Amino acid sequence: MSFMKDISLLVKNNFLSGIDVLSRRAAQITVEIQQGERTNYNKVLDLSSGDLHRGGIKPITFVRQVLAACFYPALLEDDSLPLDVKQRAKILLSECDGGSIGSYTDSSGIAKIKLCVSQYITRRDGGVPSSPDNIFIKSGSQTALMIMLKLLIRSKDSCQTGVLIPVPTYASFTLALEEQGAAIIPYHLCEEQGWTLHVEELRKALLTGRKTCNPVALYICNPGNPTGHIQSRKSIEEVIRFAAEERLFILADEVYQSCVYGDDTEFYSYKKVLSEMGSTISSTVELASFNSVSKGFMGECGLRGGYVELVNLDPAVREYAQRLFSTRSCPPVIGQIALDLMADPPKPGDPSFPTFSEEAQSIKNMICKNTGRIQEVFSELPGISCQPLKAGFFVFPCLHFPPKAIKWAKKRQMEPDMLYCLHLLEETGLHVRPGCEYGQRKDSHHIRLFVATQQDIMEDALQRLKTFHMRFMKEFS
Amino acid sequence: MSFMKDISLLVKNNFLSGIDVLSRRAAQITVEIQQGERTNYNKVLDLSSGDLHRGGIKPITFVRQVLAACFYPALLEDDSLPLDVKQRAKILLSECDGGSIGSYTDSSGIAKIKLCVSQYITRRDGGVPSSPDNIFIKSGSQTALMIMLKLLIRSKDSCQTGVLIPVPTYASFTLALEEQGAAIIPYHLCEEQGWTLHVEELRKALLTGRKTCNPVALYICNPGNPTGHIQSRKSIEEVIRFAAEERLFILADEVYQSCVYGDDTEFYSYKKVLSEMGSTISSTVELASFNSVSKGFMGECGLRGGYVELVNLDPAVREYAQRLFSTRSCPPVIGQIALDLMADPPKPGDPSFPTFSEEAQSIKNMICKNTGRIQEVFSELPGISCQPLKAGFFVFPCLHFPPKAIKWAKKRQMEPDMLYCLHLLEETGLHVRPGCEYGQRKDSHHIRLFVATQQDIMEDALQRLKTFHMRFMKEFS
Prior knowledge:
The structure is a homodimer. Chain A is α/β, with parallel strands linked by helices. The first copy, chain A, has two domains: 2-57 and 360-476, Alpha-Beta Complex (Aspartate Aminotransferase, domain 1), CATH 3.90.1150.10; 104-343, Aspartate Aminotransferase, domain 2 (3-Layer(aba) Sandwich). The first copy, chain A, contains 17 helices and 14 strands. Chain A has helices at residues 7-14, 21-34, 61-71, 83-94, 111-124, 141-152, 171-179, 199-210, 233-246, 270-275, 279-282, 315-327, 333-343, 353-380, 403-411, 416-428, 455-476; strands at 45-46, 135-138, 161-167, 183-188, 214-221, 249-253, 287-292, 306-311, 384-385, 394-395, 398-399, 430-431, 433-434, 447-450. In chain A, the strands form four sheets. In chain A, strands 2-8-7-6-5-3-4 form a seven-stranded mixed sheet, with helices on both faces. In chain A, helix 7 links the parallel strand 3 (161-167) and strand 4. The radius of gyration of chain A is 23 Å and the shape is globular. Chains A and B meet through helix 3, helix 6, helix 7, helix 12 and helix 13 of A and helix 3, helix 7, helix 12 and helix 13 of B. Chains A, B: This is alanine transaminase. Chains A, B: Residues 83-465 form the Aminotransferase class I/classII large domain. Chains A, B: It catalyses: L-alanine + 2-oxoglutarate = pyruvate + L-glutamate. Chains A, B: Its cofactor is pyridoxal 5'-phosphate.
């Protein structure tokens, strides 16, 4: 039977290093296709990462026009660009030293853009004040998060610093924590209840963690990656109360805040909820909230722009944070400008507004349609269950493998979902990620699929997945 | 006397944090000018950092046209852009997933651009082979350097990891070393001989260092910042031989490699010299060489693009390096593209070549003229001596303060050159950096001036410096 073709061996021989086996194999297959060595499919479909443009989504025109004009100011005289594009580019250039985006900026970002971001936050949170002094722009939210970890993790203590992180969570964050010398304290999200975060789970994890390390921070990803869930206001309140009781610093990764689907679903920021919990709590719980230009509908991952807002930091700690943020080189000016455009997009009445809102809406519609199709296809397939997608860019369905499939994987010393993903890639060209990379309950298995891709690509992907999955389940039943 | 106006007090009251006192004061003064509170000068002249565009230099047109077209591909249909610009933009876009520079790339950079960089290196070094597999692109050479430090510095050893660094060296590097937990082992450059690097000095420093830490790496900045010197081929050979004997990893910061002035001056890369020293040495000495789009004549600091080339790394170490480089998010795509354009600029015959070469040459001419004027003015001033500028963006003249000036500073518990710079800024609006930030021999004092600025700005700056300096020397004589 074809599944016995030993991919595990292929993996071991070709990918000695073990770094991202799947991605390397996908790249190899692409070369094989180009060289005519593959006939069963003509293209690798990549639903492995949260990258809108890779998934065929066109960039937002307003964003690209402003950026092009900033690069090449001769375009400011060009009649084909809308007036608001040219005005915005002029304002932004006037904030750059020497009128050039090629100049260094302040290492925490251009003052005007920090102000723009703080105003966006105030609007988002219905008036809760935000100060540009607490905004630090870096080349992506992950870079800002790494600096915060650097601040929180004390490498010289005899007792390791602990950070509570959800299971599942995205792999690069776990790697970064390990690299910085933190002890990872996992807490499980409740899949059966749509990946809900239960405070009892946090408490249990903390108690266990305290036996071996010094827990100082609680990392939250809301909306969730890879889980596609979003926390309710009540759930956030409970988490904040817990953090207050246990004196934990909250790291709130809120990069998917603008990607929320369904009428009954609303994003509440940790900062907003915190601000309404009474002064004992609202003025004491330390919080860092992250956002990015990569994960909204702009999807400008390659520009590298993100920020952190710091709330309630002890003045001495804040001073040290400022120092850490300022010893690093300035964030890419282009990423900063993209943040400005994200925080202050065209408004009704602006020349660019109709196109802008149409483009943004069509991306949202596309994701909703994709999600509907995914649920439809999954509901017909044996051995797959999937929590509804409420927000973000991913679904994380559970695969209920037959015992024979598990045994087959065990024999090859690989995780069953990894082996599933490798075979799926090998046989259909569809590249998705295995749950074992994100962490999951013992003996449960998942895959992660990117949903924000063109509908025809999604349809193609679902057909490949369906064909493969049916054959797989039959083979091992 | 006016110098007794107590700036030290002003500093202590207003800049409690101590982070970059001068820059903050410069920003305050700019606000004071805008609010009409200053009448003695109408503008702060900033010669504090190595930023071409801030200094009024226009970006290279070819670079900006390609970048604008990459951002907004509608421009590919625009007749006003030269053909080679459009061709290059098309090629680069075809290397981006989904044809968008908004997509993530490989975390060490786009393969085609790494190839382009390696070909540039091979040409630069007269045929010494370079492989794209050894090139890692990051958001600036400093980011790449930080990752290499992370690789070399073992935080858990009982004995601190030591890194040899020149005195003077730029302050942010020293801070970064401290932050990463390295022990700094200073070696002095010989100012009297044009900031020559003597191997005996390295040997002395290493011996001292070995008493308290475990020295593993030797950091070289060639051409030098802030010193403006360039190493001879012979000097580089001596350093490499020393590193071979003492088993030190060479970190060669070569970001000013394209900024070399004077007919008798040539840049030799550490890699080229190493390759010609016989196989015992050429195949064993471990080397990392850094370069950037910020420091050449493109001066695109704000785009954030740089790379490191690794040479002779032990396979296990290389594997770990690969891992460190790949766990971080991808470098800004725009910075990568700028690297491609730097490594492969327009050639004779290309439509963009005439403008490109004229722009590059005019920047070089401007720097040479500025350097001439600086030497002229300094030679007339009492108490200043300055080594000739051979390369890079800075001069680092020595200030011979009268004893009364030293006493005056001591009374205020400040470094004399810091106090000099603060008064220079306060009274003339000229912002330069004090030698104490870079390290200098005991009882010697310097300032660092950026030279790659428009000639009228440089003339204005020299007049301000001259007036102030004469008054200062008179006051304290």
